[in-house]
Fold this sequence. Notes:
The protein is an alpha+beta fold. It has 17 helices and 31 strands.
Amino acid sequence: xxxxxxxxxxxxxxxxxxxxxxxxxxxxxxxxxxxxxxxxxxxxxxxxxxxxxxxxxxxxxxxxxxxxxxxxxxxxxxxxxxxxxxxxxxxxxxxxxxxxxxxxxxxxxxxxxxxxxxxxxxxxxxxxxxxxxxxxxxxxxxxxxxxxxxxxxxxxxxxxxxxxxxxxxxxxxxxxxxxxxxxxxxxxxxxxxxxxxxxxxxxxxxxxxxxxxxxxxxxxxxxxxxxxxxxxxxxxxxxxxxxxxxxxxxxxxxxxxxxxxxxxxxxxxxxxxxxxxxxxxxxxxxxxxxxxxxxxxxxxxxxxxxxxxxxxxxxxxxxxxxxxxxxxxxxxxxxxxxxxxxxxxxxxxxxxxxxxxxxxxxxxxxxxxxxxxxxxxxxxxxxxxxxxxxxxxxxxxxxxxxxxxxxxxxxxxxxxxxxxxxxxxxxxxxxxxxxxxxxxxxxxxxxxxxxxxxxxxxxxxxxxxxxxxxxxxxxxxxxxxxxxxxxxxxxxxxxxxxxxxxxxxxxxxxxxxxxxxxxxxxxxxxxxxxxxxxxxxxxxxxxxxxxxxxxxxxxxxxxxxxxxxxxxxxxxxxxxxxxxxxxxxxxxxxxxxxxxxxxxxxxxxxxxxxxxxxxxxxxxxxxxxxxxxxxxxxxxxxxxxxxxxxxxxxxxxxxxxxxxxxxxxxxxxxxxxxxxxxxxxxxxxxxxxxxxxxxxxxxxxxxxxxxxxxxxxxxxxxxxxxxxxxxxxxxxxxxxxxxxxxxxxxxxxxxxxxxxxxxxxxxxxxxxxxxxx
Length: 773
């Protein structure tokens, strides 16, 4: 039977689909959170501590209240509900009460009729501090007096895998190293912003740029002393996130001000305040020992990981879990002894950032693999291939890989790719230093190296991870509703593609993400394609089943005799039925809560099926280095990645290029510098991120499509892996060019030009406990 009218006009799954918000963003017409406005709106601002550790001796807000235009000033005494919030553990005060624990901690908030008036009000508040000696070293925090009622230790994860008490063979070769990673900022372009509007029922409407609407709502409601249904959140336009919007920032403050004044309140952080207002990537100090047989077979990995979580817990417990679980890299390791520590200090709070713990340990385990290759006299690629994980292998947590794991395929494809041509001597702007034209060609050396990584997808360790979606078909129009936060990952495109693929209908709209529907979970952990994409898919399948049942009832035939082809239903003994026509005057609607396969907590030895699935990526870096001046230029990053199945090729490429940009930043330029807990560079003048001119050529050699069992459409999340091993590959290439150990990122010019200089005092320091397990 011929089916007519099946021409596809809009992209389905597997096709490149343009973003619906792409053109408005390029033209400056997209409404970001900072563009919000309401009639009668006031402006809110937050007073922050200038000290990393201090007692509050006196707090007097009266002078601020005398300023015309100031409507209210709030402190800890004005918090109407719980005085604490937190992503996983509610340990962070809404406003500091007796002490401040980090530079930038909120002390008070004001509302005024103009931003400048609010700023002057902050200056008028009198706060007298008794400065204390800050605890700024994570190692010292293990034995120091507690800076928080819950202690300094957030989590110690102990992994013991295999015969850890067995001696090594006499011919085993071991290499050791200590590695450090600095504090990186998510550096999103749009600073934190939100608009709170008091509602007639005594609640509040909050429009905010965030990564997890429902967890924000739960924390805000608790701090306001209101039931959850009185706090309603709607996602505002998000100007980037990368983990930095997973924690509460201004949400509680702006709502408190709105409820106190009875007026809409808008808060927008300055760039400087943004550096204080969100969490950062954890700095880390990591000791490693790798032991192998003479033929290169890894026998054992020992590691001690010390992550500085800053003043409050945030997601440090999960970050150190990831760091520990993936500490040995994507290799077969029969014996492992890993100790991971996440500590509280008086440094800025740290939490989620793209790669979530695996970035730090990848830098270390890949440097170790290169050291081991040298010690064994084996090619570093061959060493990795010899030990590469494959489906069915067992990880250091005792979990077997039941899905795809194309580690060897990634490596072979990557190293087979051609290298970029040599730079010509007269290409001045292509030298390290670029437009500065400071590099002398005779001092420039080229380095080439590879690195490979893996990380979990979705939430782990028994977390009840789910996502909710609604699909509604009415009059030929499909409406999809999900609370998934679109932060640039492309769900706004993907949800429409899935609906079109499942129902065959081009006309698909995505309702605003808000808390009137069940939680979609966080836009993090490379989970939304799988989880919210899966929820949309299941909701569309449920609507499809409703329609088929209705057609069968109308035609008096069995459902299994019907066939849905694109946007038409083929029926026995009759012409096809257009879905659009059949849905006129009818409503088909389903809400689905989608769960992945359950995971389990790790036991006392760090063993258990803690993860759902894994994603792998490999990177090869080509770097030119002026060994005299210490200047670097990343020439090319070539990459291969395990993607399961690509649902939108154009967006996949964008995610890979963006992730590599952040990997480049961490490798050679990005670091929050803090001195005795005080942040010294809270600006884009002094905190440097890669520009278009700093970016290398990105060569996507191959995206390996091996559909993941259990994943909707077989797809894996793509956003995090590009960041993880790109940093490690760049650092290794600089080592290759210079012959220096370079055990810390970001690599600074003085690390190269003055390798024995005073720069070694930079960053975390403390007693050498490298051999302790």
